[in-house]
Amino acid sequence: MKSVPPGALTAALIIAGKDLRSELRRRTALVSAVVFAALILVIFNFARDPTSLRAEQLAPSAFWITCAFAAVTALSRAFAVELEHGALDGLLLAPVPREALFLGKFLGNLTFVLLVEGVTLPLFVLFFNVSLKGALPGIVLVALLATVGFVAVGTVFSALTARVRFNELMLPVLLLPFMLPPLAGAAQVTAALLNGRPLVESVGWLRLLLVYDITFVTLSLLVFPALFDE
Amino acid sequence: MNDSSATGNSSLLLQATGLHRSFGERVVLTAVSLALAEGETIAVIGPNGVGKTTLLRILAGLLRPSAGEVLLDGRPVRTADPGSRSAIGLLSHRAMLYDDLTLQENLEFAARLHGLADPRRVARDALSQVELLARAGDSPRTLSRGLLQRAALARALLHAPRLLLLDEPFTGLDSAAAGRLTSLLAARRPAGLGTIIVTHQMDEARDVASRVLSLQSGRIEGAAA
Asked: Do the chains contact at A230 and B63, CB–CB below 8 Å?
């Protein structure tokens, strides 16, 4: 049968499309991540003493901690679905480079985590009663920059831990240390934006996030094929 | 003794030489060699746990042998060129399907990854081939074991692979479905497509294969009686 194997980017989009279709149909990871995010925000909000701590002081950390844990919840599913019925073998036998598998899973995870963050943001505004006036474009930019890096690392660790026992424990243990730099940067920039500071004042953090993204996306691309070299 | 005799004058499709595989201390395969000519079907039989599935995964390029080499069309099967994997189809113990997609969507996804023209039609044709077209809109989780095996066969045959590797392909199939599978395999031979079946059932092996090899204690012990 005549076949022309797809290029790496096309294959990645095919895989990401499959993952998103599958996840939107299943909805379990999306619903659990959003419910989890809402619960954390509620706890932060009620645990805060409003007489000693202003909402703007706590809100950035609360938002990014919430996003981090919601992302881990979502990433823990990323390769579990490939193990049901041994579907991973089907991917590995496809005539596409292993790097395309990484890119596909990465793009699917990135879209999914950004979707969770997009749903969490209005909840965050609601619970902390903060104004995003003028800060929204900056927050969207920093969310994108922070999320790209930790989702790349998370995609690799999700593949690495999918076949080990206690994988739901292993993933956060491995991933959270790698999430600290982008989360710290994102919280700093978000705090500055919520305090009415211009985005240009945070350019140092934005550069750091960009360097993190380039470094870890590249490393992940290089490391990922070795995970399946049994 | 190892198999080195692909039948007839056809050119060699697959050649495995000196395959050895161990998992830690446990040796599973020892110096296994076999050859498959174009259009040939061979069966490898052996009891449970003898290394049949390991052998098949090595031949498919999913598992690296500890020693030895597998050549497909004269090139290493674990080549850097991913395009060469389009020549391989595998039916394993598991269906390689996603429960959250319908059978049609599953096969379309596989067809797209193989770069087949008109994935929708290809998927329908593959389902039709195993008489599952009526269940095209159903999830794999709704299928019985036998129907799931047929769906897995459709996925393995989807891109008409030059080398088809089947692990216990008759498991769960009723006699009608088993007969259809036998016919499907027979139809591959004139087209020069090769097939390797691993099974522990001698009668199944004799029905479909031109040669039957016996795998015992990790070694090919020769043609089975």
From this structure: yes
